[in-house]
Amino acid sequence: MPDYRVFPVWRGTGVAGGGGNGDDGGWSAAWSRCLRWEHDGPDRSRIPVFDYLAWLVLSRRVCQRGRGAVGLSADMLSIKLPQLFHSHQIPKVFREDSIISGYRRPHSSALDCVLSSFQLTNETLNIWTHFLPTWYFLWRLCALCSSMNVLSDSYTWPLLIYMLLICVYPFTSSCAHTFSSMSPESRHVCYFFDYGALSLYSLGCAISYSYYVMPDPWINTWLHQHFVPFAVGNSVFCTSLSCYSRFLELQSAKRSKALRTAAFVLPFVFDTVPLFYRLLLCCGGGTMSSSDALYSHCYHLLFAFLTCFLFTAHLPERLYPGRFDYFGHSHQLFHVSAVVGTHFQMEGVLADMLSRKAWLLAQQGAPSLLGTLGALLLGLILNLGIIGVFSAALMWTSYHSARSQR
Ligand SMILES: [Zn+2]
């Protein structure tokens, strides 16, 4: 006789008392039937899905009985969630294009912001679509660290820096979205850090591309030797321009968006020029034609273009304002597309790194500490300095505007 069990791992006590009617017996009897649900009746044609449906009904009754047993009323169990706001109820600085409802209270506390990530608001999926991938990339980083000799093999250092930065940028973004409703100033500072992390990510891409992805004919050329220093300059430009764009947001949203887009497109195009060369002009020869790597790089570029499109187009919410406030608006899709693109980029970099190792080490030598960790530290210090300057300018402006209004 087939033995269908909902939870086959453990047989609960009091099973014998359960005959299939959820009203028989007390709370414990019903609970035991939840733990084990045997197919022992005459109806042999019954399939497990009916058992499952019966289990759902039974669990509901068990929950109701359990609630009664400890004396809790439905009102006591219902948790009152903080009120959400419409766009016309909050200051302009907190509003998002074509998002009408689901805004958190402006001037929330830090604890409110953290708790709001468990409430459905228009920011919830923005938070989680970057928080969860952080753990995925961190897991990949840990797996690589455990499988490679990262301390003594300097060939792995560019990869480590890249992997570290693809963990940092989604985490910073997730934090920025979480704490962006504390105050107008904190919102700006949160996104300054978000832009800084993205800018450092572009530097990490340049470092890894310089050592693993560069086309064969470009190795040891002037561009190759200056690729990482240029990328440090690009990250300074990117962070400065994107932070500056926030100051223009209230006066001219279009100009602000155009500047911010340009700030991120420039380092992306610079980093990707070697890859374009490989894909468009010479993917058929030398060590650079590893098909695994090229497929991954192609998918990465596809998602990179989709990411840029979603960031600038504000679709689909621009077509149906208010309909995608909670699920499916462009910023959530932008996050998902960016993360999927980063996954393919990581696979492409890894494939190139492993398949071209012997040839690259023979041609360009091992990566130096200055060219890898040195470049990262310089980029980090410069970016933190820029964020500090813009934050100070913001506080200064807010302080003087508050004083003039008194
Ligand atoms: Zn975001």
UniProtKB/TrEMBL annotation:
Keyword Endoplasmic reticulum included in the entry's annotation: no
Sorted UniProt keywords: Membrane, Metal-binding, Transmembrane, Transmembrane helix, Zinc
Amino acids binding Zn(2+): H177, H331, H335
Main location: membrane
A Pfam family of this chain: HlyIII
Membrane-related topology note: Multi-pass membrane protein
Protein origin, superkingdom: Eukaryota
Single annotated GO MF: signaling receptor activity
GO CC terms in record: membrane
Name the record gives this protein: Membrane progestin receptor delta-like
Organism field: Gouania willdenowi (Blunt-snouted clingfish)
Top-level taxonomy: Eukaryota, Metazoa, Chordata, Craniata, Vertebrata
